[in-house]
Amino acid sequence: MIGERIKSLREQKGYSITKLADLAGVSKSYLSYIERNVQNNPSLQVLAKIAFHLDTNIEFLLGEELAPKVWVDEVLDEEWHTIIRDAVDEGMSKGDFRALKELVRSNKWREEHGGRRDYRDIEGKKKSNIIILHIDH
């Protein structure tokens, strides 16, 4: 399974086995063994090097059902670029973006694990559960 995923991603990127081996700093024969499942227990260090150059993560190579990383230009259209530029112009830092990302990830996890709360104001109207953070550096 690991070998099949590596080979598939390598081919999607248009890399030869030699090219990926050179980029990842592993021998061509060792990478070939991995792809053909002759070597089915490569070290995490080797997998990390390979995953990096295939724009994915170790978890995906090991068979977790996580999608590989996508190229930024495939996801971020002009509206996203404008939103990000505006946020930066207004003083939002990388740390602020990371904190906001962790907040969203935490909320998604809570929703998936049954911990969702339905916040309501005094009149009983549903309120948003988004929290805006301001981090001073």
From TrEMBL:
GO terms for molecular function: DNA binding; DNA-binding transcription factor activity; protein dimerization activity. One of its GO terms (cellular component) is cytosol. It holds the Pfam family HTH_3. Residues 6-61 form the HTH cro/C1-type domain. Keywords: DNA-binding. InterPro entries: Cro/C1-type_HTH (IPR001387), Lambda_DNA-bd_dom_sf (IPR010982), SinR/SinI_dimer_dom_sf (IPR036281), TransReg_Diox_bact_type (IPR050807). This is XRE family transcriptional regulator. It comes from Paenibacillus paeoniae.
